[in-house]
Amino acid sequence: MTDSTRTSVSTENREIEELQQQLLTASEKKQLQAIDRLSGLGEPGLTVLKEFLQGGRDREPNLVLGKTYQCLYQNPLTQDFLLAHFPHGIVPFNSELNIDYKPLQQALLTQDFQTADRITLQKLCELAGEAAIERKWLYFSEVDKFPIADLQTIDRLWLLHSEGKFGFSVQREIWLSNRKDFSKVWSKIGWKAEKNWTRYPNEFTWDLSAPKGHLPLSNQLRGVRAFASLLSHPAWSTP
């Protein structure tokens, strides 16, 4: 090994050690940055991410673990590891109606947010029952009866695989911070610009450059009352 090669290896090792420490002890923002950098450093960086994910398996899933899993999921070198240790991801698919949320998880993990949005709306109709599935939209009274576990599962999948940017709970925070004034909420989340509604699908932003709370949409909610019912649901005040 030449001196230049030794220097290069030593520099890379130091960088990985620094990033590992950042991942373990820094702020959430810096942890997320460390994940991106480690995922680009080949096998040594991926090893750090795998160890970190395994170390957090007994903790409540959070944005950092969600991002770690997502980076490993997108890398073909770590597929066997995930299948062996995290075959169902890190968000439990809790459902009172035995609804399958794996398709939603897969779309979110690959950041196919438009597909994830469409699946989310389908799942909301499934929660409401056969009549809603057939008509493809929801009454506010149906939203009120959604199982808490299912709404929390959908929200956690969105939240943890969008770095905390998307999800019903995010939209709720914006709604509450604007005193439940939807005329302000629409512009905050990018659903309306001045007097013009954002047109589906081409005018919506289907990546993380979108405004906070931009997704998921509420195309199948029948009017503001149904959306208000969703944001007022007991799921958001239940641990």
Automatic annotation (TrEMBL):
Q: What is this protein called?
A: GUN4 N-terminal ARM-like repeat domain-containing protein
> What GO cellular component entries does it have?
outer membrane-bounded periplasmic space
**Gene3D superfamilies in alphabetical order:** 1.25.40.620, Gun4-like
Which Pfam families does the UniProt entry name for this protein? Answer: GUN4 (PF05419), GUN4_N (PF16416)
Name the domain of life. Answer: Bacteria
Domain GUN4-like positions: 95-234
In alphabetical order, the GO MF annotations are: tetrapyrrole binding
UniProt domain GUN4 N-terminal ARM-like repeat: residue ranges? 9-87
